[in-house]
Amino acid sequence: MAIRKIRFEGDEVLRKKSKEVKEVNEKTLELIDDMFDTMYDSYGVGLAAPQIGILKRIVVIDVTGEDPIVLINPEIIEKSGSQTGEEGCLSLPGKSAIVTRPDYVKCKAFNEAMEPIVIEGEGLLARAICHETDHLDGILYRDIADGPVHDVEMEEE
C-alpha cells in the first residue's frame, strides 16, 4: 500500500475523460488499495483515479469510515430529489462551494472482482457518488457550483 500524490486543480489530467476498465489485474487491485490509503490519509470520503493521475474509471468512497465502496466503470442510472450544501474536494484543498446534487442516486458498476453491482445512496453517499463520477469525465465541483468557490478554515487535529 502507498499514499499517492493527489493532483490539484490546474493539473490537466483532472480535465480529461477517463478510460473504461476492461479487466482487473494485480496492478489494478494495488491501485485501488493505494486509492483508499490516499483518501483516508487526506481525510476524504471519496477519490477518483484521475485525482492521482490515473485516467481509469475507478472510484473509491467511504462516507462513514467503515464502509469502503469500490466502483469500476460507474454509471448513474437513476437520480431523484435535491440537496444543496457545501462541497469540497481533495483536488481543491482549503476550498468549498455550495453545490446542488440529487438526494438519491442509483449507480451500476463493477466491484474489484469485475462482478456487476448496483449501489443506491442518499444524502452524503449520493453526493459522493455524483462528485466522484464527475471526476471521471473531467468535471470539478467548481464547474457546477451554485456560487463562488471560497476558502474554508482547515480544522487543527
**What overall form do the CA principal axes indicate?**
globular
Q: What structural category arises from helix and sheet content? A: alpha+beta
Distance between the termini: 24 Å
| pLDDT < 50 stretches | none
Output the helix-strand order: HEEEEEEEHHE
Radius of gyration: 15 Å
Please tell me the overall pLDDT: 96
What does this structure look like?
The structure is a single chain. The protein is of the alpha+beta class. It has helices at residues 26-41, 123-135, 141-144, and strands spanning 46-48, 58-61, 69-80, 83-87, 95-101, 104-110, 116-122, 150-151. Strands 1-2-3-6-7 form a five-stranded antiparallel β-sheet, sandwiched between helices. β4 (83-87) and β5 (95-101) form a beta hairpin. It starts with 25 loop residues before the first helix and ends in a 6-residue tail after the last strand. The mean pLDDT is 96.
